[in-house]
Amino acid sequence: MDADVQGKQREGSTEDLDAEVIVVGGGPTGMVLAAELALGGVDVLLVERRADQSMPGSRAGGMHARTLEMFDQRGIVERFLAAGEPTQTHMFGPILLDLAGVPTPHPYGLALPQARIEALLAEWVAELPVRRRREASVEGVEQDAATVTVQLADGTALRAAYAVGCDGGRSTVRRAADIGFEGTDATTSYLLAEATMTGDPPLGFTFDDQGRHAIGPLADGAGRVRLVVQERPPRPGDRPTAQELADAVLRVWAEDFGLHSPTWISRFSDAARQATAYRAGRVFLAGDAAHVHSPLGGQGLGTGVQDAFNLGWKLAEVVRGIAPEALLDTYHRERHPVGEQVLEGTLAQTAFLATDPHGTALRNTLVGALELPAQRDQLAGRFSALALRYDLGEGHPLVGRRVPDVALDTARGRVRMFALLHAARPVLVDLRGTDAAPSPPEALPVHVDLVPARADAAWELPIVGAVPAPAALLVRPDGYVAWAGDPTDGSLRAVLGDWFGPPKAPPR
Ligand SMILES: Cc1cc2nc3c(=O)[nH]c(=O)nc-3n(C[C@H](O)[C@H](O)[C@H](O)COP(=O)(O)OP(=O)(O)OC[C@H]3O[C@@H](n4cnc5c(N)ncnc54)[C@H](O)[C@@H]3O)c2cc1C
């Protein structure tokens, strides 16, 4: 057993846990969740099958704007920006979702291979009090009224108050918790590879009756390329052989351009499945464990990371005894509909990009409509997740939306709204001015930061446009507005209790 796990293991009650929360799977979702839990003061153990963060090839090619904003909220976005390339994204084939002019500090997507994203996340996690257990494969999960037991392949049983499956599309945790995974079967598959071609392959897209295929150069050396070959009907197996790759290249391009030395061959499909519940008692699912879909549109990694930002602070508050247990049910309530929408968007894109007569007719009929500015903006707001609104009830138009990164004049000078979220604590921003009597501090749970400030009278929201700045607003640690309004009319108190526990709840 790892030394850092050993110290906590004793037999018996909930006080003898190996960790307060066990996160299964150290991909992008699991790492962000572990970091958020550590920031929330939770003793977290991250259990991962891989020996280190290195991965052959790279699945995701980048992130959309809201994921960048969430890293900005934690003060780590510069690391990603320094490593990647800002880019505007194409969706539905030719539709350019240009975010220039959208009110966000990051009006672009970031092209950055998943391997680099994971390496940067691993650096962040290493700076936080997260215990890690590598080369540990989870085989089962059981729970009783007070604890979860996570069973490892080497026979070790680890106990925690909660466990979260961030263990990818084939999630062991999801199966063990007996959570359904429903959706649509694959209609097409894609063989993906990184290899060397000594010849002169045609770079770019090639179309035939099986679909669209592509060869693109890789930055890491002469003749190294990334290949995508579409297969219709879909072919089975997510680890195709070198022979399958060679056959596929010959089938599409009729020559192999001196193809050799593949370093990564993989297969994905447009199957779209979602967990029927994101929570079963003390077990949660996040990321690909909760939703899989075609990578068209590049939303998988970002959706998982945003699941983690949504769940992390909630779980931390409940584990620390600050907020009521019911807070945990809001995770499914908020994130399941988002996952549903992501699945729907990828299915729509698959249909739209099909090279059969139906797909061609759909494109020819609708592409003009999708290029209209209003329609394009709707798509940009949806795919970047900047227009996301959780259903947190009626009220000010900010409620349920991500807080805009407006400039605030505070007693400590001018600060960005996002900078207030670096510590992953809830913030009550009182905009009645730095001289006004602040909202009564006795009504605040002690872990809620109170920031008296002044700001512009109107704030710009993506898609929505300008909204009046409220007198005060309560921002959750994940950057969504829980409440906005008049801090003296009594409405704040009830919302505070729901999200952040009773006034002056002591931190542990
Ligand atoms: C070809 C392709 C292109 C893509 N492009 C994009 C893109 O451009 N943008 C985007 O946002 N998304 C993209 N995606 C999706 C993205 O790769 C995934 O959504 C993302 O990796 C999900 O992260 P995750 O942490 O939830 O799961 P995973 O990345 O699958 O991580 C799961 C982790 O759990 C570990 N694990 C699994 N089982 C166990 C076990 N039993 N015990 C212990 N550990 C376990 C694994 O080793 C792994 O580290 C793409 C996907 C593919 C296939």
Low-confidence parts, pLDDT < 50 over ≥5 residues? 1-12
Q: If you consult CATH, what is the topology of the largest domain?
A: FAD/NAD(P)-binding domain
CATH superfamily of the largest domain: FAD/NAD(P)-binding domain
Q: Summarize model confidence as the mean pLDDT.
A: 91
- Regarding quaternary structure, how should these chains be classified? single chain
Q: Can you tell me the overall shape? A: globular
- Major sheet details: 8 strands, mixed
**The CATH architecture of the largest domain:** 3-Layer(bba) Sandwich
Specify Rg, calculated over alpha carbons: 24 Å
Please give the number of β-strands: 29
Bound molecules: flavin-adenine dinucleotide
Query: What's the total helix number?
Result: 12
Count structural domains.
Answer: 3
CATH domain class name of the largest domain: Alpha Beta
Cα-to-Cα separation, first versus last residue? 28 Å
Indicate the proportion of strand residues. Answer: 25-35%
Query: What class, by secondary structure content?
Result: alpha+beta
The portion of residues assigned to helices is: 25-40%
